[in-house]
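Researcher: Structure prediction, please.
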Amino acid sequence: MVQSDIQTIVLAYSGGLDTSVILPWLKDKYGCEVIAYAADLGQGKGELDGIEEKALASGADEIVVEDLRKEFAEQYCWPMLAANAVYEHVYLLGTSIARPLIAKGQVECAKKFGADAVAHGATGKGNDQVRFELTFMALAPQLKIVAPWKMSDFELTSREAAIEYAKAKGVPIQQSREKIYSRDRNLWHISHEGADLEDPANEPKDDLWVMSVPLSEAPDTPAVVQVDFEAGRPVGLDGVKLSGETIIEKLNAVGGTHAVGQVDLVENRLVGIKSRGAYETPGGTILYEAHRALESLVLDRDTSHYKQQMGLKYAEMVYDGQWFHPLRHAMDAFIAETQRNVTGSVRVKCHKGHARVAGVESANSLYNMDLASFTMGEEYTPSDATGFIKLFGLQMRGRGE
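Model: Predicted structure follows.
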């Protein structure tokens, strides 16, 4: 035990391997109170079942479990969706978007219990350490940050060592030496890292997938679902109004049945390391396809193209843990303006790993069938294009040989 002025620590607690061993480790090191904070982000009943008993048995002085599913869907996933934020072409940021909300919950818990420190179980190689700590700094800079993985005396630096420590402390765990995947699940997605996935030459095994079936088991008959939007926000399915978390849950079931949203990615971490992971985002994939299709109908060309550029920056900020950055708030103001007319319905067909738009309708559509038709009418004078093209190509013509 070290001499420290820390009295109470609020630990981000998932009940997984890392935080399960960090909890007793903090107690041993600091001899202080440790409050386990668990956020219900829709990771599934199995992961949260018995978490209170497990935390208390591991030495927690208090355990707080908070249901944040609605807030997660409507105040975190929906703004990200409105921005069309996608990291490195395919990653829909399921882990990235969850961390700021968990950290915010920790800060609020620390204020409630009068704690003077917050802790997380993110490794020193990953992105999550940045996401947690930037949020702590933005919302409560007075709190001390305890990050065991970055401490020189933290000996549990491998998953194998953590398993042995858990056994020694009597902490029940699910992982084994035979299959050690690091997984993070919430309402939006599930990620898989480690074990055989660490070698990019290895194809993900069929039994890896959790929220969706392997592609080989996807049914031959497609499913069509209608997503209803108001001002860029999903509000219902097939004409029925639903809460944000319910929409995602139902679309996860539809997409998962048809192997939609499976991604195998070697990504560039913020800390400069390339990592390989497999992601499942069935409902989110359907929503992104639907939202893009509706925007294509109602946004003008200049706004649409500029918003695409902003979407790249927005994705980077989410990935980098800058959710509470002033720039992100300013970007939200711009995006909200672009979403005023993004109201309508989109039908999406899910089949054999794909989510394809099967029709889109909006009262705010800018699509003019008469103008789009190959038939020339009074509304368009073809000869006008001659002068336009001459002026538009003037610089190119001047440089031509």
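Model: The mean pLDDT is 93.
Researcher: Thanks, that helps.
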